[in-house]
């Protein structure tokens, strides 16, 4: 029935800043970009190598989402990577603050967290 995650949708506060972060820094190629005048909203579809997507939206005056302490809802978005340490080093070279590498106590895999321009928690996870 359910096969995989097709996409995750993100509403950003500064479309140009988030577009640059996800497409240039994280390297996700654009599939399509549309401006929807009736909603005063951009929608950018970005693709990951496995075919899953991130939809990046801009909406005027979107309310902030509580994040800390952890609120109900989606906790974070995790990206599978081959080498968490190399990914951490790359992100830090781009001026992005990254937490120290941790080890998943159940799988033994390395992971760490960083944030997008709107402080959305993102994770890199080896595997």
UniProtKB/TrEMBL annotation:
Domain VOC: 4-127
Superkingdom field: Bacteria
Name this polypeptide is given: Glyoxylase I family protein
UniProt-listed Gene3D superfamilies: 2,3-Dihydroxybiphenyl 1,2-Dioxygenase, domain 1
A single GO molecular function term of this UniProt record: metal ion binding
PANTHER family xref list: FOSFOMYCIN RESISTANCE PROTEIN FOSX, LYASE, PUTATIVE-RELATED-RELATED
Pfam families in the record: Glyoxalase (PF00903)
SUPFAM superfamilies, A to Z: Glyoxalase/Bleomycin resistance protein/Dihydroxybiphenyl dioxygenase (SSF54593)
């Amino acid at each position: 029935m359910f096969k995989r995650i097709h996409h995750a949708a993100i509403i950003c506060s500064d479309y140009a800043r988030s577009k640059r972060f996800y497409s240039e820094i994280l390297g996700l190629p654009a599939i399509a970009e549309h401006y929807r005048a009736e909603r005063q909203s951009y929608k950018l579809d970005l693709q990951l190598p496995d075919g899953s997507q991130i939809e990046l939206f801009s909406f005027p005056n979107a309310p902030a989402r509580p994040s800390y302490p952890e609120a109900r809802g989606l906790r974070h978005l995790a990206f599978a990577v081959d080498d968490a340490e190399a990914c951490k080093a790359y992100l830090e070279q781009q001026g992005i603050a990254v937490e120290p590498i941790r080890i998943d106590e159940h799988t033994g895999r390395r992971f760490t967290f960083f944030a997008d321009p709107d402080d959305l928690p993102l994770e890199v996870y080896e595997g």
